[in-house]
Amino acid sequence: MIECRNDIRTNMMYVLYKIYKGCKDIKNPKQWQQENYVLCWDGSNTLKLLGTPYKFEVINSKVYLDDRVSHYYQVPCDWLRMIKEQLLE
Q1: By 3-state DSSP, what share of the chain in percent is helix, strand and coil, each rounded to 5?
Q2: CB neighbours (10 Å) of residue 19?
Q3: Which residue(s) pair with 27 in the sheet?
Q4: End-to-end CA distance of the chain
Q5: Which helix (H) or strand (E) holds 33?
Q6: Phi first, then psi: what are they for 43, rounded to 5°?
Q7: CA atoms of 20 and 14, how far apart (whole Å)
Q8: pLDDT digit of tens for each residue in the chain (89 aa)?
């Protein structure tokens, strides 16, 4: 069970970091929205996922993921992966 939780956390951290790297070329603030979720890029060094009770942030290339995140249903994974793919095209 712990291995599964770690895999989920590692995958989410990877996706958030790749989105952050893709945003580094965007010099203005930008937001993506789906349902209650908002992914915010500040235009310089901070990416945050809002609309969730959990902390999802990338600040200065460091990923911060709430310790309580252990299941994919806690985050909009498919939506975040779609944003990652769009930014990396």
Answers
A1: 40, 25, 35
A2: 23
A3: none
A4: 35
A5: strand 30-34
A6: 95, -5
A7: 10
A8: 566 667 888 899 999 999 999 999 899 999 999 989 999 999 999 999 999 999 999 999 999 999 998 887 788 889 999 999 998 87
The verdict on pTM exceeding 0.85 is yes
Q: What is the pLDDT of residue 2?
A: 60
The confidence score (pLDDT) of residue 71 equals 81
Instruction: Find where tokens 């999802």 sit.
Output: 56
72: left (phi > 0), else alpha (psi -120 to 50), else beta?
alpha
Could you tell me which residues are beta bridge partners of residue 50?
38
Cα 32 from Cα 41, distance rounded (Å): 9
- Number of Cβ within 10 Å of residue 41's Cβ equals 22
CB atoms < 10 A from the CB of 50, how many? 13
According to the model, what pLDDT value does residue 43 have?
95
